[in-house]
Amino acid sequence: MSVLEISGLHAEVAGNEILRGVDLRLESGEVHAVMGPNGAGKSTLSAVIMGRPGYSVTAGSVTLDGTDILSLSTWERAAAGVHLIMQYPTEVPGVSLVDALSEALQHRGRDTAGLSDLMKAEADRIGFEHRFLDRALNVDFSGGEKKRNETLQLAVLQPRFAILDELDSGLDIDALRDCSRRVEELSNDADNPLGVLAITHYSRLLNELRPDHIHILVKGQIVTSGGAELADVLERDGYAAFTSDDEEVAEESAPSSLDDLFKM
Ligand code: ADP
Ligand code: MG
C-alpha cells in the first residue's frame, strides 16, 4: 500500500497566497474528492503536487510513502507514480500517443510488448475510437476526446496515485460515465489499487466514481471533510453553506489566468 500525504501545504502564485494550509492523506485504493467553488485553489493544489513552474510552496510538505516529492522535478514525480489529468490537457504536436506511452513505460522498467493491443482494449472500454490512437497527443481533439485520451493513458500507465483536475469538464454524459467508471475500476484493482484525488466543481463526476471521502476547499483551505453524503448536501445547497456570508461565490466564472495557462 502507498500513501500520498499533504501536510500544512501553503503555496503562492504571482505573489498571492492561494493554498493556506492544506492537509490530506490518501491511501492506495481510496477515492478522495476535493470539491470547491471556482477560484478556491483546486487547480493550484494539483499544480503544486506535480511541480508546475510558477507555483511556490511557502510551507508544508507533500510526501509519497514518506519521501518528499516537492524537491523532485515533475517527470520524477510522475515516474514515482503520481499522475495528473489536467483540467485542460496540453496538445503536443509531433508526439504520438504510442510513443509517449512507450517512453513512459520503458522509463518505469515496464514491458512495452503488446502496448498497441492494450491501447486498443483500453480505448474500447471507454468508447475512444481507434482512429484517434494514431494522432499526435491531444492535437485537434475535442474537450471530451482529450479527457478520454488522458483516461486511457492513466489506465495504461497504472500509476500509484491519480489526480483528476475536473475530469468532468468538457465531457458529455456518456463519456463522463465511461471515464469515471474506468477510474473507479482502477481504484478497485486487486493487485494495484489506484489512489484517486478527484478534483471537481460538480457532484456529477461522483455518480460512477464513488468517493470514500469528500473535502470542501474554500479559499485555499479544507473547511469540511466527510463521506459521500457531503456531495448530496452540495447538490442541494451549493457552496453557500461552506463559505462566509459576506462573500459571494461565483458559480461559473470566466477562465482564470491559470486556466489560460493550461490551454496553452
Ligand atoms: P480553481 O481551480 O479552484 O478554480 P485555481 O487554483 O485555478 O482555482 O485558482 C485559485 C486562485 O489563484 C484564483 O484566484 C486564480 O486567479 C489564482 N491563480 C491561479 N494560478 C494563477 C497564475 N498562474 N497567476 C495568477 N493567479 C493565479
Ligand atoms: Mg481549476
What do these coordinates show?
By secondary structure, the chain is α/β, with parallel strands linked by helices. It has one domain: Rossmann fold. It is built from 8 helices and 12 strands. The strands form 3 sheets. A 6-stranded mixed β-sheet has the order 6-9-10-3-11-12, with helices on both faces. The longest helix is centred in the middle third of the chain and has 15 residues, at 143-157. 39% of the residues are buried. Residues 246-264 have low confidence and may be disordered.
Secondary structure layout plus pairing:
Elements: E1 3-13, E2 16-27, E3 31-35, H1 42-50, E4 55-64, E5 67-68, H2 74-79, E6 82-85, E7 92-96, H3 97-107, H4 115-125, E8 136-137, H5 143-157, E9 161-165, H6 173-187, E10 195-200, E11 213-218, E12 221-226, H7 229-237, H8 257-263
Parallel strand pairs: 3-10, 3-11, 6-9, 9-10
Antiparallel strand pairs: 1-2, 1-4, 4-5, 7-8, 11-12
Helix pairs in contact: 4-5, 5-6
The structure holds adenosine-5'-diphosphate (ADP) and magnesium ion.
